[in-house]
Design brief:
The structure is a single chain. By secondary structure, the chain is of the alpha+beta class. The protein contains 2 helices and 2 strands. A two-stranded antiparallel ribbon has the order 1-2. Strand 1 and strand 2 form a beta hairpin. The protein starts with a strand and ends in a 17-residue tail after the last helix.
Length: 79
């Protein structure tokens, strides 16, 4: 089981007397590997963020089958 999430950054640009500020939001990533998750998993994460679904029961995670690790440098995520 891997944690997934979004990355947020607050960006402030200053030039003379002018200041602009923005919040930049990333796609949904596997926080253990740094790989972007597939669209179906990203959609489920967005539903959880919006409160449309609740978190899974921890018993389901405990019963999950392990997935073999990938070789370094390989990524199954979309580009």
């Amino acid at each position: 089981m891997h944690p997934i999430g979004r990355l947020f950054a607050r960006v402030v640009l200053r030039a003379g007397a002018g200041v602009e500020e923005a919040v930049v939001e990333s796609d949904v990533y596997d926080l253990s590997t740094g790989a972007r998750v597939d669209d179906d998993l990203a959609g489920a994460f967005q539903d959880l963020e919006a409160g449309r679904v609740g978190p899974a029961d921890e018993a389901l995670a405990a019963a999950a089958k392990p997935v073999a690790a990938r070789e370094p440098g390989t990524c199954s995520g979309s580009s």
